[in-house]
Amino acid sequence: MATKDSMVWPKEGEHWGCPDLNDPFSPNKILPMNETEWYQQDLFGLKTAQEAGKNIFETFEGDHLQFEIDDFDRWITSYLVINDSNGHDKKDDLDEEYIDDSKGNGLSTRIE
User: Fold this and answer.
1) In whole angstroms, what is the distance from residue 20 CA to residue 13 CA?
2) Which residues face 50 on adjacent strands?
3) Which residues contact 106 (CB under 8 A, 6 or more apart)?
4) What are phi and psi of 110, to 5 degrees?
5) Residues 1, 13: one domain?
6) Structural domain of 100
7) CB-neighbour burial class of residue 78 (10 A; exposed 0-12, middle 13-18, buried 19+)
């Protein structure tokens, strides 16, 4: 979730939160995911996924999708399991060297 999101309202919606529809006179009262009707009634499997440990939520300081590439890399690599040919996890062996994308769009590629 972007802590200063100017595009998504409420910003908590990025983590499945929503305004309290039972209290329309308090538009700033935002329900966390587990207090929403769709979660409690498991209308589309959100509660089931949460209870199975399948939901992953990250938060960063800044505006909508304006995270640093280092944050993105940290999020992605923290959930990857990279196995060598013998099935050993190589995530801890990844080097930290990067080469910038030639188009200058802020993307980077890990040097193998």
Assistant:
1) 12
2) none
3) 69
4) -75, 135
5) yes
6) 69-110
7) exposed
List the chain pLDDT tens, one digit each, 112 residues.
888 888 888 888 888 888 888 886 776 888 999 999 989 999 999 999 999 988 888 888 888 888 888 888 888 887 776 656 666 666 555 554 444 444 444 444 444 4
Q: Please tell me the distance from the alpha carbon of residue 9 to that of residue 12, in angstroms, as a whole number.
A: 7
Q: Ramachandran region of residue 20, left (φ > 0), alpha (ψ -120 to 50) or beta?
A: beta
Please check whether residues 34 and 62 belong to one and the same domain. Answer: yes
Dihedral of alpha carbons 81, 85, 90, 96, sign: negative
For 93, half-sphere exposure in the C-beta direction (CA atoms, 13 angstrom radius) is 8
As a whole number of angstroms, the distance between CA 89 and CA 1 comes to 29
Can you tell me which residue has the tokens 């802020």?
106
H helix intervals, 28-90 = 37-40, 46-51, 69-79
- pTM of the predicted structure, to 2 decimals: 0.57
